[in-house]
Specification:
- The chain has about 120 residues and is of the alpha+beta class.
- The chain has one domain: 2-Layer Sandwich (Tetrahydropterin Synthase, Chain A).
- It is about 25% helix and about 40% strand.
- Strands 3-1-2-4-5 form a 5-stranded mixed sheet.
- A hairpin with a 3-residue loop joins β1 and β2.
- The chain is elongated and about 50 Å long.
- The relative contact order is 0.21.
- Bound molecules: the ligand Nc1nc2c(c(=O)[nH]1)N=C([C@H](O)[C@H](O)COP(=O)(O)OP(=O)(O)OP(=O)(O)O)CN2 and zinc ion.
- The ligand Nc1nc2c(c(=O)[nH]1)N=C([C@H](O)[C@H](O)COP(=O)(O)OP(=O)(O)OP(=O)(O)O)CN2 binds next to β2 and α2.
Length: about 120
């Protein structure tokens, strides 16, 4: 029996948000990691073809990048956790192999983030 393989795709976006009463309007560079887990394709070894994953992510990226997150439909409280859940719900029908969505902000070594697993 073959072992499941995890494949991932990362993307970044720049966006503004506010989280009253904790923070006023400000911006971040966010990093997103989409993981997909499943049985490897017998020829290519992947659990998901990254070309297809990239196509699905494109629309989400367009919505979030250079956006004001509080005004995105379904994202009126844009905490890290709510952003990750929002991305999950946007993608899971098209990417059934998706196993987690991780969202982080801040530089390596000082980043803060969360992982959402549906
Ligand atoms: N589990 C979480 N806790 C908190 C979140 C969150 O998204 N998940 N968010 C906040 C507020 O946004 C808080 O005001 C954080 O401010 P922010 O500028 O977004 O982030 P930093 O703390 O990294 O800001 P710096 O001052 O630039 O370090 C609170 N808790
Ligand atoms: Zn912030």
């Amino acid at each position: 029996m073959t072992k499941p393989v995890e494949t991932y795709k990362e993307f970044t976006f720049e966006a503004a948000h506010e989280l009253p009463p904790y923070s006023g309007l400000h911006g971040h560079s966010f990093k997103v990691r989409i993981a997909l887990t499943g049985e490897p394709d017998p020829k290519f070894g992947w659990s998901a073809n990254l070309y297809e994953v990239e196509r699905k992510i494109e629309e989400i990226h367009k919505t979030l990048d250079h956006g004001y997150l509080n005004q995105v439909e379904g994202l009126s409280v844009p905490s890290l956790e709510n952003i990750a859940a929002w991305i999950w719900h946007k993608l899971h029908a098209d990417l059934p192999a998706m196993s987690e969505v991780a969202v982080s902000r801040g530089p390596d070594g000082q980043a803060e983030g969360c992982v959402y697993r549906g």
